[in-house]
Every structure is written in structure tokens, then in C-alpha cells.
């Protein structure tokens, strides 16, 4: 399940000052690889704002999962496209389609943040981002198609019948002139109910709010 990072809920000035003080000390001493995710998440909370509390929370949760993809490795070169694909796969059908709509809408801001902040992390071996430019809509539309089939067919035998052409045809129904038409996505997803599979109350509330958004609201 997509979870918020350690600093995702920071709202008060007191907490904001605490993060700034900690990061000032951290910069002077540099940080370990294990602290990279926490550091970047803290930078995001301090420097970025969405258009609503729901957008902010969604983007913070996405970033937290994005950072997890490389948290346990010592590789200094991060493939931005590959990590993003892994993140979308990891969320799979644990989130409603509205989650992906927000990611697409906010992607320019998030990618700009990542390209600026990742190489600037104060770590002994600076990190480098490759494959910085790619079409997030292509990745998302593909994941949306896969998610629909995962929700529609539950058994291994059923899933085994799905062909690549089935996925591509569903993708085509979502995309018009290289843009994802969220009304089309909503119509397709209306054929399967979204099921919340978490006992975490805060996450449940977030998912309920996401799932209530109409195409014209995302």
C-alpha cells in the first residue's frame, strides 16, 4: 500500500522548523545512503505545494514509494524512468484510477523537483539521474490497463488468458491524441468496484476521498 513518508504530515511551523534545523545539521555532516529517502521527502514537504490537501497527500505518498525503489541499493546512478515504472507497478490496483490522474497532472512539478534535488543530496558519492525525460502518460495508461485486468480477473488461470493485444487495445481506449481521457478511464473502471485492502484508518480515508473524485475534478 502506498504510504506517506515520515514528513508527509508536517503542517505546523514548529515541525517545519525542526526539519530545517535537522537538514542544516545534516548538510554539514553529509548523510548516509539510508537517510536519502527521508532527506528528499523532507525537502519535498518544505518546498512543494499542490492545489489541495488531497493532492499534497497523494504526491507525498507517491514520492515515498518512488524513493523506496532505490533505498536499499548503493547504486549512484538512478534511472528515473525505470524507478517511476517500478513505482507504478508497486501501487498496481491498490489505488483507484484517480491516483494516476493526479500523478499525471502533477508530474511536471515532481519531475522538476527530482531532477533538481536528487543530484544535490549531500552524500559522499553524489547521485545521478538518467532517463529524465519520458512520457508519463504512456507509462500510466499502460498501468491503468494492467490494473483493470488484475481487478477483473482474480485467478491465475484467468490472468493467463490475457494477451498483450488485450492490454494495448484497452490503452487505446484511454488515450486520444496522446492525452489520457479520464472520462474514458472512469467509464471502463465503473465496471469493477474499487476495493480498499488496508486496515490503516488514515490510508482508508485518503483512498475514499480519491475514489470519490469525478473525471472533471482530477
In brief:
The chain is 59% helix and 5% strand.
Q: Which structural class should the secondary elements be placed in?
A: mainly alpha
> Low-confidence parts, pLDDT < 50 over ≥5 residues?
6-15, 23-27
Strand order of the largest sheet: 1-2
Overall radius of gyration: 18 Å
- Give a count of the beta strands, DSSP E runs of length 2 or more: 4
Largest sheet: 2 strands, parallel
Strand content: under 5%
Q: Which overall shape is indicated by the principal axes computed on the Cα atoms? A: globular
Q: Percent of residues in helical segments?
A: 55-70%
Number of alpha- plus pi-helical segments: 10
Termini distance? 21 Å
Quick check: average pLDDT?
A: 86
User: What is the H-and-E element order?
Assistant: HHHEHHEHHHEEHH
What features would you describe in this structure?
- This protein is mostly helical.
- Helices cover 59% and strands 5% of the residues.
- α3 packs across α5 (97-117).
- The two termini are 21 Å apart.
- 27% of the residues are buried.
Characteristics:
mainly alpha, 218 residues
List the helices and strands and how they pair.
Layout: H1 13-29, H2 36-47, H3 53-68, E1 77-79, H4 80-91, H5 97-117, E2 128-130, H6 136-152, H7 156-159, H8 164-174, E3 175-176, E4 179-180, H9 182-189, H10 201-211
Parallel strand pairs: 1-2
Antiparallel strand pairs: 3-4
Helix pairs in contact: 2-3, 3-4, 3-5, 5-6, 6-8
Amino acid at each position: 500500500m502506498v504510504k506517506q513518508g515520515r514528513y508527509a504530515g508536517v503542517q505546523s511551523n514548529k515541525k517545519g522548523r525542526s526539519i530545517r534545523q535537522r537538514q542544516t545539521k545534516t548538510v554539514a555532516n553529509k548523510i548516509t545512503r539510508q537517510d536519502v529517502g527521508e532527506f528528499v521527502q523532507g525537502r519535498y514537504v518544505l518546498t512543494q505545494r499542490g492545489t489541495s490537501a488531497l493532492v499534497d497527500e497523494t504526491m507525498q505518498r507517491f514520492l515515498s514509494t518512488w524513493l523506496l525503489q532505490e533505498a536499499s541499493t548503493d547504486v549512484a546512478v538512478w534511472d528515473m524512468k525505470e524507478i517511476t515504472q517500478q513505482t507504478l507497478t508497486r501501487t498496481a490496483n491498490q489505488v483507484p484510477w484517480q491516483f494516476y490522474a493526479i500523478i499525471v497532472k502533477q508530474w511536471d512539478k515532481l519531475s522538476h523537483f527530482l531532477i533538481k534535488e536528487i543530484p544535490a543530496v549531500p552524500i559522499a558519492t553524489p547521485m545521478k539521474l538518467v532517463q529524465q525525460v519520458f512520457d508519463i502518460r504512456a507509462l500510466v495508461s499502460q498501468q491503468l490497463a494492467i490494473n483493470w485486468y488484475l481487478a477483473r480477473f482474480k485467478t491465475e488461470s484467468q490472468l493467463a488468458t490475457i494477451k498483450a493485444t488485450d492490454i494495448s487495445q484497452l490503452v487505446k481506449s484511454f488515450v486520444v491524441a496522446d492525452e489520457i481521457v479520464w472520462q474514458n478511464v472512469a467509464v471502463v473502471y465503473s465496471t469493477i468496484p474499487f476495493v480498499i485492502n488496508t486496515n490503516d484508518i488514515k490510508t482508508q480515508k485518503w483512498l475514499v476521498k480519491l475514489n470519490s473524485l469525478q473525471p472533471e475534478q482530477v
